[in-house]
Amino acid sequence: MSQRATDASRLMLAAGMATVPPGLIAIGILVASEHADPTVIGMICAAPAALAVPILAVASVLRRAKAVVEAAPATHHHHYNGTVDQRSINSRTRGVIAHTRNQG
Q1: Which secondary structure element, helix H or strand E, spans residue 28, and what is its range?
Q2: Residue of 91, 96, 94 lying closest to 104 (CA atoms)
Q3: What is the pLDDT of residue 104?
């Protein structure tokens, strides 16, 4: 394993071990209060996953959007020289059967 992978593994193990004391405290409180209901415990355990799934989904969408933007073709700007025609046209439409007369 590379040094980076070893450091990442050590960090993950330390983070996993950091969750043990709060979990033991929560179990102690539930047992002491006699409210160790399996439904409540299931909801407490499922809460982190319920929060993590939408966050991971949004992160995945953003990564894909970034890849799409990077894969998009470059923007081309075209500049033309010459005269510009800037006439204004007045249009009038009248009657039940429309008849348009453009006057320039």
Answers
A1: helix 20-32
A2: 91
A3: 57
